[in-house]
Amino acid sequence: MDARGFTLIEAICVMAMTALLAALLMPLVPQGATPARLQAYALEIAAILKADRNAAIRSGAPVSTSMSAAARTVRSGSGHGEVSLPKDVAFDALLAKTCAGRPAGRSIDFFADGASCGGTVVLARQRVGFQIQVNWLTGGVDIVAVN
C-alpha cells in the first residue's frame, strides 16, 4: 500500500507543539498601549486643555482642568470630556503649587485673558513618552515627544 500524507496522530502532535510554543511566546508580545495609542492619549488631553482655555476666554471666568494621578484621569472643567488612562501608561502631572494667590496642585487653571497656572502632563510607556506642556503666560498647549 502506497499511502501518502499524515496520520491523525501526527497532525494532533504538530498542533499540540504549535499551541505550546504559542503559549510560551505570548507573554513576550507587547500588550497594552501602543506608541500610536499613547500619542492619541496625549492628543486627547491636549484637546481638553485647549477647549478649557477657549471656554475661559469665551465665558470671561476661570476654568480648571483637573488632574488625578490616583484615578489616572484628566477631566475638563468646561464639560468637554475626560481621559482615563490604562495602568500600563505612566502618568504624572507637574503642576503649580500656588496659582492666583491660592493653593493649587490638582488642576491647571485657565483665566479669561488666556493665561493659565501652567503645568506639564507626562505620559510614558516603555521607551516612548509625551509631555503636554501648558505655558503659564499664554496658556498655549504643546505636545513634545520624549524618547
Report on the architecture of this protein.
The structure is a single chain. By secondary structure, this protein is of the alpha+beta class. It has a single domain (35-146), classed as minor pseudopilin epsh domain (minor pseudopilin epsh fold), CATH 3.55.40. It has helices at 8-25, 35-59; strands at 63-68, 73-75, 82-84, 90-95, 98-99, 102-103, 107-110, 119-125, 128-134, 141-146. A four-stranded antiparallel β-sheet has the order 3-2-1-7, covered by helices on one side. Strands 4-8-9-10 form a four-stranded antiparallel β-sheet, covered by helices on one side. Strands 5-6 form a two-stranded antiparallel sheet. Strand 5 (98-99) and strand 6 (102-103) form a beta hairpin. The radius of gyration is 24 Å and the shape is rod-shaped. It starts with 7 loop residues before the first helix and ends with a strand.
What's a quick, concise take on this entry?
This protein has two helices and ten strands, in the order ααββββββββββ. With 147 residues, the protein is of the alpha+beta class.
| Number of individual domains | 1
> Hey, roughly how much beta strand do the residues contain?
25-35%
How helical, in percent, are the residues?
25-40%
Reading side by side through the largest sheet, how are the strands ordered?
Answer: 3-2-1-7
Order of helices and strands: HHEEEEEEEEEE
CATH architecture: 3-Layer(bab) Sandwich
What is the tally of helical segments? 2
CATH homologous superfamily?
minor pseudopilin epsh domain
Mean pLDDT: 91
